[in-house]
Write a structure and sequence with these properties.
Blueprint (H helix, E strand, L loop, with lengths): L1 H27 L7 H4 L13 H8 L1
Length: 61
């Protein structure tokens, strides 16, 4: 039973450690994306307009 307490304690410490490292990475700007916004305009997708019910009915009638 004491092994469970040791494993639980170690896993909580490791989890808190990874969380602290993650917060440090976010604060340092590691996950900021500075490349995609500059090239997003080059890959702009065309908007697909939905067909209205009248145009569908007129084509089938």
């Amino acid at each position: 039973m004491s092994v469970i307490y040791i494993v639980l304690t170690v896993s909580v410490i490791v989890g808190v450690g990874f969380f602290i490292v993650f917060l440090m990475a976010v604060k340092s700007g590691q996950y900021d994306d500075s490349y995609t916004p500059s090239v997003r305009i080059l890959f702009e997708d065309e908007l697909v307009k939905e067909k209205s019910k009248q145009s569908i009915k007129s084509k089938t009638d």
